[in-house]
Request: fold
Amino acid sequence: MKIPVVKEILSANDQVAAENRAEFDAAGVFVLNLMASPGAGKTSLILATVDQLPEEVRPGVIEGDLASTIDADTIAAQGIPVVQVNTGGSCHLDAPMIRTALPNLPLDAMHLLFIENVGNLVCTAEFALGADLAVVVASVPEGHDKPYKYPGMFASADAVVLNKADLLEVFEFDVDYFRSGLEMLNSDAPLFIASCRTGDGINDWVTWLLSRLR
Amino acid sequence: MKIPVVKEILSANDQVAAENRAEFDAAGVFVLNLMASPGAGKTSLILATVDQLPEEVRPGVIEGDLASTIDADTIAAQGIPVVQVNTGGSCHLDAPMIRTALPNLPLDAMHLLFIENVGNLVCTAEFALGADLAVVVASVPEGHDKPYKYPGMFASADAVVLNKADLLEVFEFDVDYFRSGLEMLNSDAPLFIASCRTGDGINDWVTWLLSRLR
Reply:
């Protein structure tokens, strides 16, 4: 009995994700689904990325959290249009939550929408939102074994940003081991080694991202 | 339709959790359910704790991961009895998974069982395993806002260990803000500020843990 129910929920979600995608396409908005463990630096990456966007690429943000508006407040303080989605306990964003948020965003005046998912390295990868790219933000303090332990997330990524790289030595982080794990699962996703704090590596990531915009 | 199904699954899980608990009690084993974000330091805390246990308190470990035996190998290398449970994609351990692992552990020769859950600050809190204590391992690099963003996990904790405290200054971590968030949700859970790397604070945690053993 259980498996058919799960399939039905997923396909209902996929249906709404396709509707979201059609709305994004109509408005000419390119959309990132940012996924990560709690505290890996999703919000920091959004801010560091926006900081380097050309003026004509207008950003917007949907913040997903179980509770609180901490990240949305940070984004709004930078003058970026933002909507907070509180999942009320759910461990991931789903397409209907995004659909509910859209009327509150100026999509026609926007070119790049960041969806910051709930901090969760498992469940978030399982629900399409209608985004163009799935981006995983890993962080050095989490350790270099994460692709091996959480393969689903890394296998489905379109790009991986390894944040907090200013602390590679402090955490004895083996970049080659991390990279091998990623490449074993996913030979297509580029890996950007960056630090939102120092700004190192952000330029390469933003250059690649802009190359993907329609 | 959905809510009754979820309730039924939870109560089936609770039923098996109660059976696990009866088996632990019969064997005189005290059980911790260790929950955390990916890379917060659950395995490190197990090793640091075992290192300070009196000789008569024999430990054992169940390692929960989506994939890999990386942590189980680390535990086994220290001569500690360990069973790996690979969830095959599931974002949490549940009581039946623990039940399956039990025949592979020498429960009668063991006093303290650490169950290392999947790295997930949301879903793991929702499934009883039959443990005596729910212990949350937070870590400084994740940021001081975690209790506000992941309230369910912190609300249900019996104790919180804040690991990687040797890096409080590097991450500009506000301990008072973290503590306030925790106390707002949960006035009963003690907070231990510790570093598995330096060993600072581990003694207080182990002393408290031993005081809880039957």
